[in-house]
Structure formats: structure tokens, C-alpha cells
């Protein structure tokens, strides 16, 4: 069982878009844990789900990221803790990677291996067989390099060292999964693949008949249609979040000591952790190229069909991964938008409407979670523009979705909030939006969302607005169902190209939305007649 602060129940509620510590109501304060009145007791499984980084944006804000940040801790205590951690690191023993049977083969060519065993193919008639063997050897040696120089380095030097430190009560709040995902599974799968290929090559070299081909189809089928692609997919889905989590950890002194110690190990070959973490993504995209090379050099027709089908399977896996990454990125981005977009009530949004305090409870407006639902809505375009008002210019931020346009006013807070850690931001957020978040700001909705079928965009000639000092201006009109204009926004872009881009994006979005609506209407009229028996 674990304790989860009741703040988790208010994920969709608006305060200022961020969470604040309730220091005045704390009843228990331990390292990494704060208990407040009304906190819920839930199972560990539920706690893991609720605290998932995609669902809870500021889950790190309650944890003391570095024990020296507590008030009252003197500099000498920090130095002692640093010294103790360095002493702990000095006792870490890294196993040498040379113990693997295939270690000496990863930098050799196929000709060198065959020549060593005095079995080099010199007959011209066997030249095609030799090309196929070379292509297979390239797959084997590249997998050896991937396993030994990347996966094993990540596991033995970085992950195992972090585990060792945590057993000695250092870096206890660093989440291994968020940083390394299923690295353990990936390493075991790659090792099994390398050993299987090595066994086939060893049997072939030891055999008396070298004119026969390598029997590798069964191994390729087993791994590429089995766990190899699936384990890489799991890792790749976590990669983007892992990189941003790493960036947030880099700001800590204790993690910096650990990272520096690991990266100085000679087996890292001067590669830094981000360069090692990206290796599985690069490897997955290279598999189809290696399989295509084997397929091109294969001579047997049945064998070619098998290899081609395996290559297609891997390419489909990559396409599926791209779709999952896009969906996950969209989901994560909408979660952040729900946090920073503030929806003011009707009486704050338009001063023409007077609602007595005693009647305000009647107006139950939809929450941002319902309006910004990532399951049926996509963000097409976004950016910063200037809105011309009667007496001033206002910085606004526009969000163009696939069914409506949202005009918001950016608000920046001079006092930064602790939860707006740049390392925890969504990777796909624009620099402008990231700047707003870093300053603890928000985007307040100026008016109701403008449905694309009620939106009209018009270019404004410089002659008409030059007297107001406007350049690169265009007009957005919001019309009701009777085609009456109920709102208008005179917007100014930084350059003429930005203005044209915005107008093109809005026009295209309107066209696509109109077509989709017409298609839905047609499908409703062409539905088959309902059976009389129902």
C-alpha cells in the first residue's frame, strides 16, 4: 500500500494551472513523502498509474531532489555527502566485456574469419554464395557492436551502477524505468540473437563442406517475428520521456557526480549517456536495410520469399511504432495544454453579463478535459501573434485544432513556480510555450472556441491599417448559425510569411473540416435500412 496526496484527484481542476504545496496543512514530512489531511490510501498498482509521468506532470515537485537543498544543512555536510558518494562509486566493479566468445569477431571481416580457418572461397562459381555470407556477417557483426558497445555499456556501467548507489541510499528518488525502460529485456534479447547467429556461423566454419549456405532463416524468423521488434518498440515509446527526464536530472549535483563517473569509464568510448540511449532507435531502423541486403544476395527463391516477408514484418513494426509515438505525443501534449490553458467563467470573459454570486453555481461549464480531449481532437498549428485592441496591442497565442480555433492571452508570472521544471516538459511543446511555462505563466482563453465551420479569415491590406501602425495584419471573424458576426479579432504577424502561413493553415483546416462533415452527412443518409425483425 502507498500514500498518494489527494491533490491527484484534482488533476483536471483549474487553480493557476499548477500545483502548490500545502505547507500549512502538512502533518507528516519525511524525505520523499508528505502526508496531508484527507490523503487517500491506495494500492501500489493504483499509485503507479496515478503517478505516471504522462498523467501527473509535476510528480517530482513533492520530492526533495537533493538532500542538501533542505534549510539548515551546512556546506560541510554537503561536501561530506559528496565525498561519501564518490567513495561509494570508487568501490563499484565493472565486469570486463571481453569474456564473450564473439567479442574478438566484431571487428573482423568475413574473409579474415574464413582465411583463419583456411576455408576462403576462391572459386568464381561460388562468388554469389560468398556475397550472401558477407551480408549475413554484416548483420552478425553489427549486432555484436550494438550489444557490446551500447546495450551492455548502458546496463553494466550506467544502470547497474545506479542500482548499486541506490542500495547504499544514494539517488533513491531516481526512477530506473523512466530512464532505462526495458533495457534489461532488450539486452537479453540481443544477446540471444547474437549467440544464435554465432552458433550458426561456428557450425558452418567447423563443417567440412563450405559450399553449402548458412542456415540462418530459422534464427531470423524466431527473433524478428518474436521478441526483437516488440522489445525495441517498448523501449522506443519511452525514449522521448527518458531524454527529458535525463535533462531534469542533470541539474542535480548528486546525479552529475554519478553521470560523470560513468561517462569517464573507458568502455564508454567517449560516448555520453544521451548518445547511448538513442542506440536502440537507430538499430531498429537499420534492421530492414540489413535484411534487404541479405535478400538481394540470396539465390534460393523460397529463401528470398522468407527473407522478404521478415523484412516487411520489421518495416510494419516500425510504422506501427511511428503511429504509437504520434498518439503518445499527442496525448502527452494535450495533458500539458490542459494544465496551462485557463478557461475563465462567463462573467469574467464578458463583462456584459451580470450574474449574481448566489446564481453562479447554476453555470456549470465543461472542464478543459472535455474540451481538449486527445482522443478525438488534433492540434494542427499554433503560434504567437499580436491582437489589436482599441487602446493597446496584446500578445496572444493561437491554437488551431482540427475542428476549432482557440485564441488565448499569454500571462507570465514574475514569480516562477517550483513545478515548472524545464526537464519535465513535453518534448513537442513550442519554444514560445515552453518560455511561458518556465515563467510559471498560463494561456487564458479570450473568447469561446471558434468552430471551423463558423470561422472566416480575411487578409487586410496595409493601406487600411497603416494609420494604426499595423503590418502583416489579417482578420478572423466568428459567425453564428445565422451568419451574423459575433466576434472579430484583428491579428498582426511578425512577418508577411508568417501571416501567409497562418492564413493557409486556417483555410486548409476549414476545408478539411467541411469535407469531413459532408462525408458524415452522406454516410448517415446511406445507412442500410433497419431490419423489421429488430
Per-chain topology:
Elements lengths: L1 E3 L23 E3 L2 E3 L4 E3 L1 H7 L24 H16 L19 H7 L10 H41 L8 H5 L2 H24 L10 H8 L2 H23 L3 H11 L9 H5 L1 H18 L4 H40 E2 L3 H4 L18 H4 L7 E10 L4 E9 L2 E8 L19 H8 L3 E4 L4 E2 L3 E5 L2 H4 L7 E7 L5 E8 L3 H30 L9
Parallel strand pairs: 5-9
Antiparallel strand pairs: 1-4, 2-3, 6-7, 6-13, 7-8, 8-9, 8-10, 11-12, 12-13
Helix pairs in contact: 2-9, 4-6, 4-9, 4-11, 6-8, 7-12, 8-12, 11-12
Notes on the structure:
InterPro entries: DBL_dom_sf, DH_dom, GDS_CDC24_CS, PH-like_dom_sf, PH_domain, PKHG5/7. This is Pleckstrin homology and RhoGEF domain containing G7. One of its GO terms (molecular function) is guanyl-nucleotide exchange factor activity. It comes from Macaca mulatta. The chain is built from 17 helices and 13 strands. With about 525 residues, the chain is an alpha+beta fold. The protein has two domains: about 80-340, Dbl Homology Domain, Chain A; about 375-415 and about 425-525, Pleckstrin-homology domain (PH domain)/Phosphotyrosine-binding domain (PTB) (PH-domain like), CATH 2.30.29. Strands 5, 6, 7, 8, 9, 10, 11, 12 and 13 form a nine-stranded mixed beta sheet that branches. Mean pLDDT is about 80; it is low at about 1-65, about 70-75, about 415-420 and about 530-534.
